[in-house]
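Comment on both lines for my students:
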Amino acid sequence: MSYPVQKTDAEWKALLAEKGAEASAFEVTRHAATERPFTGKYEAEWADGTYHCMCCGAKLFEAAAKFDAGCGWPSFDREAVPGAIRNVADRSHGMVRTENVCANCGAHLGHVFPDGPTDTGLRYCMNSASLDFKPKN
């Protein structure tokens, strides 16, 4: 797939290092790795603000859309900007899931499941390493 923002692996690594991203950010965002549950820095973050793509800065989620799913990863019920997230069929690990990637740069964010507790029925289960939280001023 093609995305508006494209960089080489070396450029992504340098950018993530410059941003002070978590050590696992490159593997998570560029190679679809998954952080272990309950280890991400945003799993228990409840301040008001917005969550952006760690790689390109695209706005992905409002803090008001976050809820405690008890799964160990930050969970949201809707994207902040329609079309900010692209869904991709993921048939890895012997199952079928819907992977979420940043529509702007293709960074792996996590997966979405149809078991959310709100009116959307969705649970966007994200990796903290894919996100950059900006607190509301």
